[in-house]
Structures are given as structure tokens and as C-alpha cells.
Sequence to fold (235 residues):
Amino acid sequence: MEKNKQVIAAALIAVGIVILGLCIRSAFGSLSDSQRVVTVKGLAEREVKADKVIWPIVFKELGDNLPALYATVAEKNKIVEKMLTESGITADEITTSVQVNDIQADAYNAERSVYRYRMLSIVTVNTTKVETVLQLLKRQSELIEQGVAVTVGDYSTPSIQFDFTGLNDIKPDMIKEATQNARAAAEQFAADSESNLGKIKTAYQGQFTIDDRDQTTPYIKNVRVVTTIQYMLED
Fold:
């Protein structure tokens, strides 16, 4: 009787070990399957034209008589504004600001000047008429001919800025393109590894970036996005 109990107990232990082994094997198999993935990136790029421009037209005047200096600057501002409005820039797209510096009263200024005052005038164009501004940029010499010494390329003064504001209009198509490119890469990987491409496990849309195409054409922008997608691989 005692011997039979021992046999039964041993049999139960053996069965338990077999079942435990099968469970462990199944668990490892499931883990292995869950790790059979491929992570790919898809790129989409577009070249677009800027649809907004901020153009500061800057010039400086020097003098000792402040009222007379201001009158000179006011007259030259009218010259600038006339050229702008005659070319199609509206008054509400133009703002003017004037800054005065008392050179001799500035204790931190090591500059030696025979004049006491420096007046800086900034006529700023803020418009969506990018093509108009591009044409006006070629005509800055006309202002110089009329006595307006326009400052160009001075690091201490604001520079022209071109922007692209239509990102939301092209986002859907660019995301679609990036996703398609990512899937094409995943399908190639699956084919090379003799697997089938399964469902998407994870997907991340990268940040959109807008940069100048190059330094000479800041009015042409390069829009870029990269998506990262993880696919399951199946036998």
C-alpha cells in the first residue's frame, strides 16, 4: 500500500515537471514572438516658398541739432514709405520707429564722433506679399540715390526674415508620405529576413522642422519630418 502511494506521488511529480516545462517553453516562445519586430524610419521633405516676410529698412543720421535731425529722418521716412506704397505695400503693413542715441552722453561708448546725436530709423514691412518685397530688395539703390543711406548686412541691426505659415496645410500629406516610406523599408526588411510584415506595434511622428534651403535663398524653405514605426514580423 505504501509502495503504491510512492509510485503515485512520483508520477504526479513527473507530470508536474512536464507541465511546468511546457509552460516555460510556451512563455519563452511567446516572449520570442513578441520581440520579433522591426523598427524603421520614414522621411518626407518638401520645398516651399515663404508666405510671410518681415523686412526692416534701416538707416542712420548724425547731427547736433535734435529737432533738425528728426525732421531730416522724417523726410527720408516719407521717401521710403512712398516707394513701398507705390509698389503695392499698404499703410497697415508698414510701421516706423526712431531711436536716438546721445553719443557724447554715453559714458560707455568709446567711439569718437564730431556729432552729438545718432538717430536710427527702422521702417518695417510686415506682409504676405513676398514676391513684391523680393522685387523691392533689388531697388534699394533707388533709396540711396534719394539720400537714404540704407544699412545692409549690419550685425547690430535687424535683418530680413522670411517665414512659412502654411504647415498645417501640408502636414497630412507629408505624414502619409513618411509613413509610406517607412512601410516600404519594413517590407524590404521582412522580405530579406524571409518573414511577413505584421501589424504596427508602435508609431511616433517626429517633429516638423522648417529651415532655409540655403543661405542665398532664405525665401525658399525646406520642410522635413521623420516618422518612426515598429512593425511586428510574422512567419
The mean pLDDT is 85. The domain at 37-51+164-235 is CATH 3.30.110.170 (Translation Initiation Factor IF3). The first strand starts at residue 37 and ends at 49. The chain has three domains: 1-35, 37-51+164-235, 52-162.
